[in-house]
User: Which sequence fits this backbone?
C-alpha cells in the first residue's frame, strides 16, 4: 500500500517541478519528465521481476517449453522500452520520431514471434494427411 | 531509493539555477554567455538522465532476459 503512495508522491512532485521548469526552460522540463519516468519504472520493475519468477515456476509445472515464455517476456520488454521512448518523443512534439521507434519495435517483435508462427504452421501441416 | 528522488530535485534545481543565471546575464547584456550557461546546464542534466536511462535498460534486459 505504501508503494502506491510513494509512486504517487514522486509523480506529483515531478509534475509540479516540470511545470515550474516549463515556464523558462522547456528542455529541462522534458529531461525531468524522463527522470521521473525512469525512477518510477525502476521502483516498479522489482515487483515485475517477482511476478515473472512466479510465472516461470507455473510454466515449468505445466510443462510449457521455456522458449515460449521467454519469447513472450522478450516481446513485453521490447514493447515497454519502445513505448517509453516513443511517449517521450511525443511529449517533445516529435511525433514522427515516435512513429519510427514504434515501427522498429514492431519489426523486432515480429522477428521474435516468427519462430512460433512457423511452429504453429508446421503443427497444422502435420494435421493435414 | 533516497538517491533516486534526489535526482528529481537535482534536475529541478539545476533548471531553476540556469533560468536565473540566464535572466541575470540577459539583464547585464551578455546574451551569448547566457546561451552558453543554458547549454551547459542542459548537457549536465542530459548526462545524468542518460546514465539513468542506461540503468533502466540494463534492468529491463535482466528482468525480461533480453540478450
Assistant:
Amino acid at each position: 500500500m505504501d508503494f502506491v503512495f510513494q509512486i504517487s508522491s514522486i509523480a506529483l512532485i515531478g509534475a509540479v517541478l516540470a511545470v515550474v521548469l516549463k515556464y523558462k526552460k522547456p528542455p529541462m522540463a522534458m529531461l525531468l519528465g524522463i527522470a521521473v519516468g525512469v525512477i518510477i519504472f525502476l521502483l516498479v520493475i522489482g515487483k515485475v521481476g517477482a511476478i515473472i519468477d512466479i510465472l516461470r515456476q507455473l510454466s515449468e509445472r505445466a510443462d510449457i517449453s521455456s522458449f515460449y515464455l521467454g519469447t513472450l517476456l522478450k516481446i513485453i520488454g521490447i514493447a515497454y522500452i519502445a513505448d517509453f521512448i516513443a511517449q517521450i518523443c511525443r511529449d517533445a512534439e516529435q511525433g514522427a520520431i515516435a512513429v519510427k521507434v514504434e515501427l522498429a519495435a514492431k519489426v523486432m517483435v515480429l522477428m521474435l514471434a516468427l519462430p512460433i508462427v512457423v511452429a504453429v504452421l508446421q503443427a497444422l501441416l502435420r494435421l493435414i494427411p | 531509493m533516497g538517491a533516486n528522488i534526489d535526482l528529481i530535485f537535482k534536475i529541478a534545481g539545476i533548471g531553476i539555477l540556469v533560468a536565473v543565471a540566464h535572466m541575470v546575464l540577459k539583464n547585464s547584456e551578455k546574451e551569448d554567455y547566457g546561451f552558453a550557461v543554458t547549454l551547459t546546464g542542459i548537457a549536465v542534466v542530459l548526462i545524468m538522465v542518460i546514465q539513468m536511462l542506461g540503468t533502466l535498460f540494463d534492468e529491463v534486459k535482466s528482468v525480461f532476459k533480453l540478450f
The helical segments of chain B are 2-27, 31-63.
